[in-house]
Amino acid sequence: MTKRDMSGKVILITGATRGIGRMAAHGIAPTGATIVVVGRDQARVDTLISELQPIAGCGPLHGEVCDLTDQADVRALVDRFKTRFDRLDVLVNNAGAIFTKKVNTVDGFERTWALNHNAYFLLTTLLQDILRSTGGARVVSTASDAHRPGKMHWDDLQFERRGTKAGWSTYCQSKLANILFTRELSRRLDGSGVTANCLHPGFVNTGFSRNNGSMARLLMTISRPFQRKDTKGAETVVWLAVSEEAEGLTGEYCHNCKPAKPTGRARNDEDAARLWGLSEEMTGTVGAWR
Questions:
Q1: Residue-range domains of the chain with CATH
Q2: For the chain, what percent of residues have pLDDT higher than 90?
Q3: Residue positions annotated with a catalytic role
Q4: Residue 129 contacts by C-beta under 8 Å, 6 or more apart in sequence?
């Protein structure tokens, strides 16, 4: 890819302290952008900043700690960001996880849904004004081919009645939601100069799912020969965020630095609009979009 000179531009990356997000930050750092890295733990945020600082061409760095499953914390993050910055050239929605046990967040949502979808929607919504006012801004969201067996359970999005199949059903639904969100976001941003795309990073060798007990860790260890390196998984994030080749691309689901074809369910514009309306209700942002 041909990376643009991003000096003077601002990039915000969630889920930045591990795996794909961490390597995306490493890949973006040489462009000279001001990078705001968001993580759950201050020590990990500080460690990442210390890793990025020696990279040739690295621009200013700023760290933020936020629990993205807590909507009040997301709103506080946005307030802090807007106090410090008057532009946002790239928003990378990357934080995500799979949880084997069903637990509801402080806002009352199943936590996979809260982190993997609601956080994307709320953060993007609260930052839409600054994205619109920044010429040529981009929104990049990490989805997954795990959307392929996914289904939107409209009558039970929070899995209050049906089983979660050790977290797999909730995860697949959330990844399908990422693509539907991107489609509708791109439509709503049409004519604004802001683009929105999502991506499948591949099956990546990261700390993913190791928060779910010994069996999950064992499965991840056994499958390691089939996993990509995190640097490879981050490539499409970097490509969509800062490459010249991705200029003007919008509404796409990408893999290996090019558009790919998601399932028919993921291309259903009626479902995308329906999800958008429900997301506004779940995040208290009804009427926020122009």
A1: 10-283 (3.40.50.720)
A2: 85
A3: 171
A4: none
